Structure formats: structure tokens, C-alpha cells
Amino acid sequence: MSPARKAAAVLLTAAALTATLTSPASAATDAELAFHWAPVHYQDTDSSDYDADYVSTVDFDGEWNTLNNWESQDDTVSRLTGAAYYSVVETSTHWFLVYSFYHPRDWEDFPDPFGQYTHENDMEGLLATVRKDGTVYGKLEAVVTVAHSDFYSYVPAGSTFTSGRESVDGTLLLQDGRPTTRQEAKGHGLYAWNGTEFPGGDGVVYVPSTTGEVPSGGNDRSVGYRLVDSFASGGLWARRNDSTTYASWGTFRGDNGKDNAANTAWGWDDGNDGSDVPRGLLATDPAYLVSVYFANRGTFSLTYTRNAYRQ
Q1: Domain count of the fold of the chain
Q2: Which residues contact 273 (CB under 8 A, 6 or more apart)?
């Protein structure tokens, strides 16, 4: 064999080996990926109104008018079945999964006559970055959570990711291989779970399931929540220009407390992470956000092979 042909053969063999190592034997669907990496979710509750802290869907009351969700929240608690929205976009090196948890109320246990502390509708969540490592579900490398107008960065043990422009805020704990998250009562800021008991000793632990369940009370430690595709026909993203649901791009209509104060994933914004990371980028261009937030990322593509937010 000539040197040129021998070199070509070596390159072809290396390419085939690389493909074998980086391509899973069978590709998971978006729903399967989302279920695999869906967090065990620790929802704190407040005893003055437990069910106001139950998670559900935007259309929990059977329709998409978000101006009546505050009023409908406590009409029939059995409608507050556990749920979280998800979306999946990908590059050649990573999947990026956004999970969004919805509450009909962002509330307080004291009067708010001037709408300074409360608002109708509330959605906060997280971005999970998963490397395509040749296995079916990949390897979780980092999570960014959304708490009001701030983002927080976490990495699981064994991740190479380190602080970039933003500091890593802590270690992401896993439970049965899943990330764990916690959410405040009333205001619902979302963070990585720190492994401790709920403040006050009461809260709901939501676990991924094929069926959404309603907590038996404010201290139920195993409640199923189902996953809802944000890109589903007639769903959250499909209605993005629907004035029945949205007041403006990525912002829900709401008229209790502060008007129009809750945002979808494509409306989330950290107030001080730089002008090159604008509102909504966590969902619409997560690869760039992760490239800014973290260093030591290894092979990391910024080019999407699939991203419905950008079509």
C-alpha cells in the first residue's frame, strides 16, 4: 500500500472510531431526554396557603386566558396537577434542555395593595447542559437556574466546567442520577437543592412521572409531575404571539398585583450578565450563554443542528 493510501486508510479508521465513540447506538427522543434529566424538585410551601405553591400548567383551568389564573388558582385545587414544561435544542456536541415550572400566583402572606410584591402567573426554571458522549442520554455537565431576575450556575461532581464570566455558585447534587432543584415558597425563586430540609419543615417533593399528581397537602414528599413539550402544537411556544396569553414577547398577561410581571423561558433575563447576553438567550441561544458563563468546557460547538426557537 502506498504511503498516501495508507495515510488515508488511517484517517478513515480514526473517523469511524470517533463516530462510534460519539454517536449513541440508538438516539433518544426529546421526550426521553427530558424525562431522563428532569429534576427531583423540592418545592417549599407556606402554611398560610399551601396550594398556592403547587406547580401546574398555564392552562390548568382549561383555557389559556392568563388574566384569570390568580382567581382560578384556588377554585378547584384538584386541577393543580404537577407539571413542568421542557424544550430541547442541540449542537453537534451538546443537548440543551430548559425546564419551566409554572405557578398561577407569585404571592405574599400580607396585603399588597400597590402591587409591589406580588403578581399573577409565575414561571421560573433551569437550563441543563448535557454532553453528547456516545451514550443514549449523554453526560450532564452544568445547570443554570432562574431565580427572579438572577441566574445561578451549578456543576455536578466530575464536571470539568469551571467559573467563566459568572462564578459557579455551587455543586449540583444528584438523586438517582437526576439533578435536584429547590424552589422558594410564595416568590418561587429556583436554585439547586442544597441537601437540607425545607424551611419550616414542610414542602412538596415533585418527582418526574408519566402522570401529574396533586399533593395531598403542603408536606407531601412524593408527588408525580408530568413533562409538557413547550414546542407542542397549540402549546406554550405555538401561542407566543397570542394576546389572550401574552401581554408582550415572552411576558404573560396578568392584572393582579404588578401587571404583566411573569415571563416565559424566552423572556428570562439576568440583570447583570452583560449586554451580549440579552433577555431570553438562556432558551433561544443557550450554547452562547453557557460559553460565557463557564470556562474549561472542552469541545463545545456554538452552531445549532436543531433549535426551534430560532426557526
Answers
A1: 1
A2: 151, 165, 166, 292, 293
